[in-house]
C-alpha cells in the first residue's frame, strides 16, 4: 500500500498560535484515495530542521506532502530548503503561476510588487501545479531511487487553509496519475441520536458479520453525529458496489430514521436539500442556542432559497413581544419548558409565515437548577398543522452544549418534516 | 531553555477524521510558560510506534506531553505502551481518580462499569494528576538520566479537548514546580482593522527600536484580529514590567482605537465587558452574517445580562415586516446598502428596546455583482440618539467572509459605543 507522511511547516503551528486544519484535510483525502498516512509531523521555520525532517520522511514514505512556509516574507524559508534538499541549481519563473498572481492581485485592485513576482519563481528541480486560489504555486518534486532508496514524491502546498482545501483535489489527481493506487469504494451513512459507543453496541452483530474485505469506520462529530464509512479496497467491481449497497440496506433496517443521509452531509445540508427539493420554507426561534442554528443553516450556499430568518429571543420580553409567547405560559411552566418551546416555534412560524419552524429553550451553562440541570434543552418544531417538542440532555461545556443543542434541533426538525411528508 | 515535544496519539487524528485542537492549546501554554516547543508529532494507535516515537522524543526533549489514546476501548493502547516504555511491573489503583470516576458517572445518572473502573488503574511507574473533567487520569512519568541521557518528564493527557483544556493549568503548574523555568512576563494587545502585513508596516520603526530582551509576536485570527504579544524573558523585575508598560503606551499612541483590549480578549468578550460595566443593553439584526453575531455574543457566559436578542432577516419580507425596513428603502438603494443597514439597526433597536443595536447586510458569496462584489458588507450601529454605517470588503470563501463580517461588525460597534461614552 502506498505510504504517505504529512508535514506542516511554520512556527505559528508549532507554538500553537494557530490550529492546524490543513493536515487533517490532507490526511483525510489521502486516506479516502486508499493511501496509508503513517505519520504527521510539525516543525518550525528552520532550514536545517526542514531538510533533515523531509529527508527522513522521504526515506520512510512514497509520498510526502508539506504545507506552509511559502509566504512572501523573510521568515518563510521552505522554498530554499526544498531547493537545497533536491539539489536545485537555479530558480526559474513559472509563467502559469506568474499570470495567476497578476490576475488575483488585479481582481483585488492591488499592484503586483516584486515580492509577489518572486512567488512564481521555483527551483528547477520541480514541476508546478498552478495554485488558482493564491499566489504561491504547488511544487512537485519527483525524486529518484538513488537519493532516497526508492522513488518518492514531495508535494509542497501553501499554508492558507482555503487554498489547501481548494487545491487538494488537483494534488490527489496528480498522485493517482503517477501511482498504482488500489481502487477503493467508499459509502457514507450519516447517523444522529446515538453516541459512538451506543451505536457500536447497536451494530455489533451486523459489524461482526461484515465480509472480510469491507472496512467500517466510525467518525463522530458534535455537529453532525456519527459518520459511518463503509469501504472496499482492492479490485472494485460492480458486484462489490452491489455488496456494499446490500450492507447499507441492512444498516437502514437496523437504524431506521437515525440515518439522516446517505451522502457525506452535515445536518444543515440535509435540511437544505429536503427544503429545497420540496419547495418548503423554514425559520427559527432560538433562546439558549443564541443564533447557532441560524448560523449553521446559513453556512450552506443558497440557504436564502428556503431559510427566511430567525429570532434570537435571549431576553424574556423578546420572547413575549416579538414571538408572542404568552407571559402566563412562561410564568406557569418556566422558560425552559415544553410549553415555551412550543409557543416559540408557533410564534416565529406565524411571524415569518414559514412552512416550518424550529425552536430551542434551555441551559447551556454554566449553571442550572434541580428541574433543569445544565445541558438541558427543549426543542420545538411547528408546521402549518402541528407542533411537537422533545427534551435533550448533554454534559459538555457551554460551547459544546450549544453545538449539540443546535444539532439535535436540526435532527428533530428533519424527522418531523419527513414524517409529515410521508403521512 | 527547557525544551518540549507534543505528541498526539490516535488513528482518528492521524488519518484526519478529527482536527487536532489539543496540540495547539498545549504548545501555546508551554510557550507562554517560557518553554520552547521543538517538535510536534502525530502517530497512530500502534504499540511499537508509540514506544519508539516517545523514546526518541524523550531523548531529544526535557518534557514530552502526549494526548489521546486513553479511552476505555480496546484500540486505545497508550497506557500499556507507557507501562512497557517505563519498565512498569504492575498496575495500581489510583484512589483519587477512582472516586472521581464514580462522581462523574453518578452525576450523569450512570452506573460504574468494570470498563470505567479500569480507567483508574495506572502503571506503578507514574504519579497521577486527578482529571476532574473526565474518567482517564493524567499520568506523570519522571524519568531518570540513566534511561534517556538526561532527566525527562512524560505527561500523558486524555484526548478529549475540553478535558485537556481544563486540566492544562494543573500540568503547567506541575512543570513549573519541577523545572527551573526562566520567569517570563507577557502582555497582550488586541488589534482590529489592520491585516498582519499592514500592521507590521505600521509598527516597523517602533518594533526596530524595541529593547533586545523584549520579544514581539503577531498572532492573527479571523474572529479576533491580530493579538500582539509582548514578552520579556529572564529575570523579570518590577522595572521590566514598567518598561513593557511604557512600550504599550507607545503602541497606543501609534494604533489609537485600533486597539480594542489590553487583555487576552476576543471581540465578543470586549463587547461583553463594556456593556456589563456600563449597564447597557444590546441587540442585533443580521442578514448576510445569518446568526453568527448573535452566536459569538452568546458564547460568552452571562451574555443574557446585556444581550436581549436578535433577528436574522434573511428574506426581504422579514426585513420589512419584523424590522420595519421601508420597502422603498430597499427598492431605491438595494438590499446591500448603507440605508438598509441603517434601517435594520434602528428597527431592531426599537423592536427590542435596547440601548444599542448592530446590523449587517452584504454578500458572503458565492456570487456578487458589479456594485457589490462577493465579500462586501454594510454594517450599521444605532444608539438611542444616533446611527452610523460602514462598508467592509473581504476576499475569502463564504464561511470566512461570514466570520470577518461578524468580527468587523463587533469592532465597529465597540468603537461607536466608546465614542458615544467619551463624548
Strand content of chain A: 15-25%
- Which overall shape of chain A is indicated by the principal axes computed on the Cα atoms? globular
Q: Name the assembly state.
A: homodimer
Instruction: Report the C-alpha radius of gyration of chain A, rounded.
Output: 26 Å
CATH fold call of the largest domain in chain A: Molybdenum Cofactor Biosythetic Enzyme, Chain A
CATH class of the largest domain in chain A: Alpha Beta
Stretches with pLDDT under 50, minimum 5 residues of chain A: none
CATH architecture of the largest domain in chain A: 3-Layer(aba) Sandwich
Using DSSP, what is the number of strands of chain A?
A: 17
Mean of residue pLDDT values of chain A: 92
Which structural category do the helix and sheet elements of chain A fall into? alpha/beta
Main sheet record of chain A: 6 strands, mixed
Largest interface: A-B, 75 and 75 residues
What's the number of domains of chain A?
Answer: 3
CATH superfamily of the largest domain in chain A: MoaB/Mog-like domain
Major sheet strand order of chain A: 2-1-3-8-7-6
Number of helices of chain A: 16
- Could you give the distance between the termini of chain A? 50 Å
User: Helical proportion of chain A?
Assistant: 40-55%
